[in-house]
Amino acid sequence: MIGRINHIAIAVPDVTAAARQWETMLGATVSAPQTLPEHGVRIVFVTAPNGKVELMEPFGEASPIAGFLARNENGGMHHICYEVDDIESASQTLQAAGARVLGDGTAKIGAHGNPVLFLHPKDFNGTLIELEQVAATSERPQAE
Ligand code: CO
């Protein structure tokens, strides 16, 4: 069902400071910051040859990652995102198998403009999993 890893998301208290650290200490290629008010985050992407890491700082009062950062003051790994071809089919299959889809169980448009849903971390070894439907016609790097 799951395809390639689309991104790994890390919650950070200060995305500007985190971006600078990843650039200067790790030598990473980091995008310019983007604020996504409707998703309650300010993000940068760290691109590696075989994938990307998203550093996310809470934005606004109702940020969905505020609680996570309150419990993890220095930040931490928040979720891992896998690509799927058909998110509704994936959702139905997972729910039939007993996995809990967060929210009302239907996909929503995520931070990258594609349909996404999240699976309950208690069903997957304490890891929040995001599934993102990526159009089959989109350009994808070849897996190595
Ligand atoms: Co994500």
List the helices and strands and how they pair.
Layout: E1 5-11, H1 15-26, E2 29-30, E3 34-36, E4 41-48, E5 51-58, H2 66-71, E6 76-84, H3 87-96, E7 108-109, E8 115-119, E9 128-133
Parallel strand pairs: 1-5, 6-9
Antiparallel strand pairs: 1-6, 2-4, 3-4, 4-5, 7-8, 8-9
Bound molecules: cobalt (II) ion.
Cobalt (II) ion binds next to strand 1 and strand 6.
Can you put this structure into words, describing what you see?
This protein has helices at residues 15-26, 66-71, 87-96; strands spanning 5-11, 29-30, 34-36, 41-48, 51-58, 76-84, 108-109, 115-119, 128-133. The chain has 144 residues and is α+β, with helices and mostly antiparallel strands. The structure holds cobalt (II) ion.
